[in-house]
Specification:
- The structure is a single chain.
- The protein has 382 residues and is α+β, with helices and mostly antiparallel strands.
- The protein has a domain of 80 residues.
- Helices cover 38% and strands 25% of the residues.
- The longest helix is centred in the last third of the chain and has 24 residues.
- The protein is elongated.
- It starts with a helix and ends with a helix.
Amino acid sequence: MQTSIPDLLKPYGSVFSKPQFNHFSQMIGSLAVCEKPSLSRFAEIHNKDRSSLNRFLTESPWEVKDVKCVYHQELNKYLPSNCSLLIDDCISHRPYAVKVEKANWHYDHTIGKQALGYNVVTSVLSFQDNIIPYNLIPYYRKDDCKDREFLSKNDIVEKIILSTKNNDKVDTIIFDTWYSNERVINACKESNKHYITQIKSNRNVTIYHKKSAVSSCDKYIKPENWEYFTHGAKFRIFATSAFISGIGNVHLVFSQMFNDYKKEWGETRYIISDMVEKESKILVKEYLTRVGIEGFHREAKQNTGLEGYLLRNNRGIEKYLFLVMLTYATLVMQKLSMKLTKTIGEMCEENKIFVYEKAYERIQQNPEIKQSILRELAKARV
């Protein structure tokens, strides 16, 4: 490959010892090609002892924050101006995680019920039809924070947003109703970033000097006041300026999507932004890019091991989840470097070919080890 994963990992050598860096490189490379992640399979690829990889995650003294600092420096090389930061959370499911440290029950909106596993607050950068992860931080319930300071999801999101304060390539923060509160929006203001979010239907807003729940304003919108446009589906919007206590003046957009099956307009969504001069339909389109973070969750689970790992140690799991994010990001950087239009799954396939080529070279040099190399790749599910 023109740009291989080892090439992209070279800048991280500054935060690891040589043995640590070898393990780090092997973990990233393995996560990019293994169909089902496990330390045993990773060890098969590199002819290593599984326990050495386990110690790298659970005992080795490297810190995620140091690697993340290098990652953000490398990430900026690929970013254009005016990127959007999308924020959401997801569950890394561990359905049989009774003995896994700090695994707990969390509500999973994708299945509409509680699920056992790790809840992670994630953020990704959206630009020019690309999605690349920015940060991933596990959230723990208070009962699981006896050895650390408890951080609510809002605490974590505030921390992520404030970390972009000196990054002039991040322009707008986009998040859903769960985080549309004064604290998160004020973090956007402190970081000098614009925001686009959705508010709940019972949120009080002041329009034309009258304060009421935003949903009660629907009935005052006349049919001729709706603006129509198409963006994949048919939409109609009505925009006005409003005031929300604790937030200030906002650009408020009432948005409805047409249901082709029922042949009627769907429920109203209430989108707000501090960009009062921006065209309303552009705000709606930008808010809809938020689905990109769900694509990241789905692809990371399917292709880079966000689920299915068998670790039990909390320290090891935190580092593993970060490496999953970094693997996904490295695949995106590889794609951008080579100017490819492939999906993450297709990039994993490309890297499998790279592994096969290296195995072929080893076999040519030492034909007697052919069977053992092929057996290692088969066991690793490459």
